[in-house]
Design brief:
Elements lengths: L2 H13 L4 H12 L4 H8 L5 H38 L18 H15 L3 E2 L5 E3 H4 L12 H4 L3 E2 L2 E6 L5 H9 L4 E10 L11 E11 L4 H15 L6 E8 L2 E10 L16 E10 L1 H7 L7 E8 H9 L12 H4 L3
Parallel strand pairs: 1-5
Antiparallel strand pairs: 2-4, 3-4, 5-6, 6-10, 7-8, 8-9, 9-10
Helix pairs in contact: 1-4, 2-4, 5-11, 8-10
Bound molecules: phenylalanine.
Length: about 325
Amino acid sequence: MDINLIQETIEDDLANLNSISDLEDVRIKYLGRKGLVAQLTSVIPTLAIQERGVFGKKVNALKNKITTLIQEKEKSLKVQVDSSQTNDLDIGMPGIARGLGTRHPITQIIDEVCAIFTRMGFSVVAGPEIETEYNNFTGLNIPLEHPSRDAFDTFYLKDYTKMLLRSHTSPVQVRVMKARKPPLAIVVPGRVYRPDAVDASHLFMFHQIEGFLVDKFIRFSDLKGILGLFAKNIFDRDIKMRFRPHFFPFTEPSVEVDISCIICKGQGCSVCGRKGWLEILGAGMIHPNVFKQVGYNPNKYTGFAFGMGIERIAMLKYGINDIRLFFENDLRFLRQF
Ligand code: PHE
């Protein structure tokens, strides 16, 4: 057995293999108990004494050489395995798109309505959803025995009989007027609560925007002008409005305001119940009794107030026929806005 030949063959063997298990076979072939190196070692005792030392050293050197070659091959095979795994990285591949949320349609309408009024000089104010019975009713000229409490009489807090979930945003009129002096031009978006049975057009909770303006010499015509501008901005330039006499305890005179049906343009369709008109809000001139409650002199100041349901505006604007859709968190619905 020629030591030089063995060294050449191991180099060939290593160059041609590609896996750790093939490498193990090569290791056994050379370094195993019956391997080539072991065979060479077993020859040593048969040699003449003076030859043993030189031959022994050569065998040892060969063994060390083979061991190093195998270790190096093992390292390079492992590096190849690692990099073949990371080769899956494709830096040209498109990234993972993050789903960007949008504002809820109710929030969009609130923002839109508030923007229209702030352009006309109104400021936006918020009030609490848990209100005093006084602000929700008495301060708004709805005394304890007044029949108009019925429709609103709402969720009272168990241990605070004088506290309730507000049934409209009008109590914020009382809060703001008690805290500030005229001139006032305010809009108030927020949630309100009513003991209504749930159906396609009613919920126990919905959103309103209240608006009010108080100063010297404010007239009903100012109310008409402001609401007319609002309707044209939120719906359509050629929308028509009409004012129907109505009753609210906190305004006098009071009106309900209709717009010409945005679906059939006043011709009559199923959305407007063949009337050609859609009711969108309640309004009126602030009642002198409300001014007295908040400490304003009703002979000095006049003002108007209005309140509208946000869901109703959104349903008309987007052609939605069931109010419950807004609060089911169904992404198929919400993604459309
Ligand atoms: N608060 C009334 C309601 O909820 C709406 C309204 C507000 C009417 C302001 C007149 C003036 O029905």
